[in-house]
Design brief:
CATH topology of the largest domain in chain B: Rossmann fold
Number of domains of chain B: 2
CATH superfamily of the largest domain in chain A: NagB/RpiA/CoA transferase-like
Helix content of chain B: 40-55%
Oligomer: heterodimer
Number of strands of chain B: 8
Number of strands of chain A: 12
Strand content of chain A: 5-15%
Shape of chain A: globular
Structural class of chain A: alpha/beta
Chain lengths: 499, 239
């Protein structure tokens, strides 16, 4: 596995097609509206509390920008400090590389099962599937990831992977599946949150106490000290990080931070932006290995998988500043309607729409940069001020250029855009087009409106739900010439308008 | 002060009344408005859809046509944003010493440049204001449009539920992602109907065409009107 085969799901539909199916699912839409609305309100309350929130965002953005500019330096420094602390550092160029490294490390321990801390990087590389191919069972221990895994499902949100599920669905999944993976759900399980949590607790406790190997991601790693950290809510991550003998951490190279003091900024930005909490319940940090305490073997796999290519794009590289808080998903009006699966990627929502195409190549995720109205809610919410609309528009241009280079003849859209550009190049041509639109519009109009169009056309997507206005009898330009024609600017018009 | 009107290709073709309203309003406030006839389009549709080479000559043309004015006023927040944020990218301002066109969306011109909130308008109707994404988050107009509306005689301003949510237009998004666009529109329409407004106004006719198209399809009886047309209305004048 490499390239686009893991970040994006094989055979995934384009966004508009996948979205159509999601939009038809009333339960999904209700679950999403409720869940995103709740987190959104909590986040707003928590960020409004801090007088220096905007300065914190600026600091976070500046730290990330600077770190990315000197990424090579900090990564080498990290390798040295982790090694000095007793860890082993591995470099993985792509997903296949990373999966091979982790698989070999697990096989070398003689174990055939691992417990997992919730991790986007391992989702990105499809690690669970790769381990399964080698006969190794990987057990997700984050509650939501457990729900997704037991449901033979895919995560639909970065922070809340099972956001598309309600508690009744979760009860059904637990009852049906838990027994096949370990301790079965208690009989008569209700959909009360406490009962569901207890069932998960009993099921997972068995795994924690047995596992000899854990696999995690990382929210950050400190170049200066070699400290690696995971931020979580449940404590299940800490179980994995402390109980097993071997810990393997897979981390995207962009997660490195220069120094411990930088955490002052990010440990304020992250919990408030993600779960809407002042601080997260569990923050685990570790440096290499400590004799007699916690894992005695620590491997850090540094993952590139398209990040260096992303770094080369001076506009698109902003996406690498992402701290995976999901605030942009929760405020996105598109995500709220479609959910995460429609994005066909482990990174859904606005950040996914800018990150996925860069990690896998725009031609493999061409519909994603267009899956946005450019409303700007994501930019406003982003704790590290990633200008997502700017990157979306930038990537749209890259998609169009890639199609221009590959597709002969040009797409219908490209031809229409070219025609529009020709019309708009000269006021005279625009006037002729306006006359044509007026004529066409009047032919289609009934009762002063243009309803559903009788013939298939590019406008059918519009006219299925919206009337079109009838072009008025006189354009503004026509009115101006009739009423203000003595003004000086009209002299120039007479010349240029014959074009 | 030399003031030019940038009507936008969209308003020129489909919403000439908005342009007339801007001219009438600014003339009423004592300004002479010029309309450079060589203007066409800011290139927003091309730029936002990824067709940059096609947008460059439009941006260049815009810069030439509107050079030398003290203020260029437009009744479109999204086109104002395009000129302000998009043109510097297309025309590579970082590499040149081009002076940016002094672009103002109408509300900015009235409130920030002229220092007005009461423009002497009268509009005795129940009105809701939809802050379009480009006016709210793009230009950061904030409370300014509401201040203008509150000063209009006879106007009853009603609150629009979930006002800051995108209506789902998004330019070519409305065609490329018609289903998602419609799902967003449905929620916006519910908000408009729940507000009890007779008229929904905004600073962008493009969003209003989308919302108005939905209101019309539902035969709701709620009208959409550009903010400029409300601010231009005076007592005894037909609206």
């Amino acid at each position: 596995m490499s390239g686009p085969d893991n970040v994006v799901w094989l055979g995934a539909l384009s966004f508009p097609k996948a979205a159509r199916a999601a939009l038809a699912d009333g339960t999904l839409r209700a679950n999403l509206k409720h869940a995103t609305g709740t987190i959104r309100d909590k986040r707003l309350a928590m960020t409004a509390e801090l007088d220096d929130w905007e300065q914190l965002r600026d600091a976070g953005a500046a730290l990330k920008k600077r770190t990315l500019r000197h990424l090579d330096t900090y990564l080498r420094q990290l390798e040295e400090s982790v090694t000095r602390a007793g860890g082993v550092v591995h470099w993985a160029a792509d997903a296949a590389d990373a999966n091979r490294i982790v698989t070999e490390l697990v096989l070398a321990t003689g174990e055939r099962e691992v417990v997992k801390v919730k991790s986007m990087a391992t989702q990105e590389i499809g690690l669970n599937e790769a381990l399964a191919e080698a006969g190794i069972s990987a057990y997700e221990t984050d509650l939501a990831e457990l729900i997704v895994q037991l449901g033979h499902d895919r995560p639909s949100h970065i922070l809340v992977p099972a956001i598309h599920r309600n508690r009744a669905e979760i009860r059904d999944i637990f009852q049906r599946e838990m027994g096949d993976w370990g301790r079965a759900a208690p009989t008569g399980l209700t959909d009360e949150p406490a009962a569901l949590a207890e069932a998960a607790r009993l099921h997972l406790r068995e795994k924690f106490l047995r596992a000899k190997v854990a696999v995690s991601g990382a929210n950050f790693a400190i170049a200066e000290s070699g400290t690696v950290g995971v931020v979580e809510s449940e404590g299940n991550g800490r179980m994995c990080l402390t109980l097993p003998q071997t810990l393997i951490t897979v981390m995207g190279i962009e997660k490195v931070l220069p120094s411990w003091s930088d955490l002052e900024v990010f440990l304020q930005l992250l919990p408030r932006s993600s779960t809407g909490e002042r601080m997260n319940p569990y923050t685990s940090t570790w440096r290499g290995v400590t004799p007699g305490d916690g894992p005695q073997v620590f491997h850090l796999v540094l993952l590139d998988n398209g990040r260096t290519d992303t770094l080369a794009d001076t506009v698109g590289r902003q996406a690498l500043a992402c701290i995976r808080c999901s605030a942009c998903l929760n405020v996105c009006p598109v995500y709220e309607r479609t959910g995460g699966h429609a994005y066909g990627s482990v990174y859904p929502g606005p950040i996914g729409a800018v990150l996925t195409p860069q990690l896998v190549g725009v031609e493999h995720a061409a519909s994603l940069p267009f899956a946005s109205t450019l409303c700007g809610a994501c930019y406003e919410a982003c704790p590290v001020k990633i200008d997502i609309p700017e990157v979306l528009v930038h990537l749209r241009a890259r998609v169009v250029e890639s199609k221009r280079a590959r597709l002969r003849p040009p797409t219908a859209e490209a031809l229409a855009m070219k025609a529009a550009r020709m019309v708009l190049a000269k006021p005279g041509r625009l006037r002729a087009a306006q006359r044509a639109a007026r004529l066409g519009g009047r032919l289609l109009a009934r009762d002063g409106r243009i309803g559903e169009l009788p013939l298939p056309s590019a406008l059918n997507g519009w006219s299925a739900s919206r009337d079109l206005p009838v072009p008025p009898a006189e354009t503004f330009r026509g009115w101006w010439l009739r009423t203000h024609s003595s003004s000086a600017t009209s002299v120039k018009e007479a010349r240029s308008d014959d074009a | 002060m030399r003031v030019a009107l940038f009507i936008t290709c969209f308003n020129d073709t489909l919403y000439p009344d908005t342009g007339k309203a801007v001219v009438q309003l600014l003339e009423r406030l004592g300004h002479t408005v010029e309309f450079p006839l060589d203007q066409t389009c800011c290139g927003q549709m091309h730029f936002n859809t990824g067709y940059r080479p096609e947008a460059v000559p439009l941006a260049r043309r815009f810069a030439e046509v509107f050079a030398g004015y003290d203020a260029v006023v437009t009744p479109s927040a999204s086109c104002a944003g395009m000129v302000r944020d998009g043109h510097p990218i297309l025309l590579e301002d970082k590499l040149t010493d081009r002076q940016p066109v002094p672009m103002y969306e109408l509300v900015e011109f009235l409130v920030d440049v002229l220092g007005l909130t009461d423009v002497g308008a009268s509009f005795p109707h129940r009105v809701a204001y939809h802050p379009t994404c480009h006016s709210l988050r793009g230009l950061g107009l904030g409370e300014k449009p509401l201040a203008l509306l509150r000063a209009v005689r006879g106007l009853e301003l009603v609150e629009l539920p979930a006002a800051d949510s995108c209506c789902g237009f998004g330019g070519t998004f409305a065609l490329k992602n018609a289903d998602t666009s419609t799902a967003m529109l449905t929620d916006k329409l519910r908000g408009v109907l729940d507000s009890g407004a007779e008229v929904l106004c905004a600073a962008d006719n493009s969003c209003l065409m989308h919302i108005g198209g939905g209101l019309s399809r539902q035969r709701s009886g709620v009208r959409t009107l550009h903010l400029a047309e409300i601010l231009a209305a005076t007592e005894g004048e037909p609206e």
